[in-house]
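Async update (no meeting this week)

Hi team, since we skipped the sync, here's where things stand on the single-chain job. The sequence we agreed to prioritize is pasted below, unchanged from the tracker. I ran it this morning and attached the output directly underneath so nobody has to dig for it. Comments welcome in thread, and please keep replies under the output.
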Amino acid sequence: VLVSRSLAGVPVSFIRGHSIPDSCHFTLDSISHIPLPGLLINCNHLSLITSSVSHFKGCTSTLTADDFAVFFTNKTRTISDQFSTAQTEDNFKTTNAHSLSSFSPLSETDVSKLILSSHPTTCPLDPIPTHLLQAISSSVIPSLTHIINSSLHSGTFPSAFKQARVSPLLKKPSLNPALLENYRPVSLLPFIAKTLERAVFNQLSMFLVQNNLLDRNQSGFKSGHSTETALLSVTEALRLARTASKSSVLILLDLSAAFDTVNHQILLSTLRKMGISGTALQWLNSYLSDRSFMVSWRGEVSKSQQLATGVPQGSVLGPLLFSIYMTSLGSVIQKHGFSYHCYADDTQLYFSFQPDDPTVVARISACLSDISSWMNDHHLQLNLTVTVLLVVPANPSFHH
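Output:
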């Protein structure tokens, strides 16, 4: 009872994200009705949790929806404006002899499966709640099938589906809510728009998998893969190196607003080289172009902001398109004898060496220099404040 009262008023999002030591844990669902099965809470640090949440409790924010809209737009534009517009080709090369020139039409049964198997999330832009749409799906499936097939056949993504509604989310409850930079945008898209995306996603991903065009070292947004596969791949390589009495270097790369700064022309060029052509490529071009968003904040909605770069946040296709965009980075890393593994826009590169190898520093410098050039060519910005280099010695000592 005491613990339940102590947790009263503590945001669930904060409890989820709090870093918890290994000692003195209990599960929250055993003492509370909050549906967080298996969540571990640390008794010793409960006062720290509640005090950090209440630190800014009295802070009154005067931020408006338009403030957020302008801030999110300018953040992306500032990064994109750093790069030359002359580079619009990717150096990705493929020997793929197959092509995908059009997307196949869907049957009413196919569309029904897409509708009913989707999570019933609802966006403010949806005309009716998604759970209601699913309940009456048998009545609307013929019309939805016609809309989807017309889009696929014409190579055009409907303009009505290109707007997103964005909600600002405080990155950490302990941050000052009066500062714009402490928020991240959470993008919501219409349910029917995402249903159309799923129709394309299924066909595009099948083509890429069948022709072995996806990066095998990318664990993000891939069936059967997760953060666990990325973590195990890297840690096992480092463990084996130490077993062989070798030292290792691990470099963790982080990108700033990576999804939002994807250059459309470079992405389309990469898709073309992978064998995407015809109305399929035309559809993807239409999907990416002329998008916009509005911010919802405390009951008000901002003016619409245009998006000139990026893959849509909160979308079905966005993560897959981003993985395609990053594909050629792997060859740059491997050219220097490094191994790597990715999860979305987080890239871990590593290599092992004899402890007395005098070439290590030069190899690291050369590899990072080429990565920096690749990032610049692809209009992506390394976040140097979060990027980390870690040395894993063959024989741990006090000096290490």
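Quick observations from my side:
The CA atoms of residues 42 and 317 lie 39 Å apart.
The first helix runs from residue 2 to 6.
Reply here if anything looks off.
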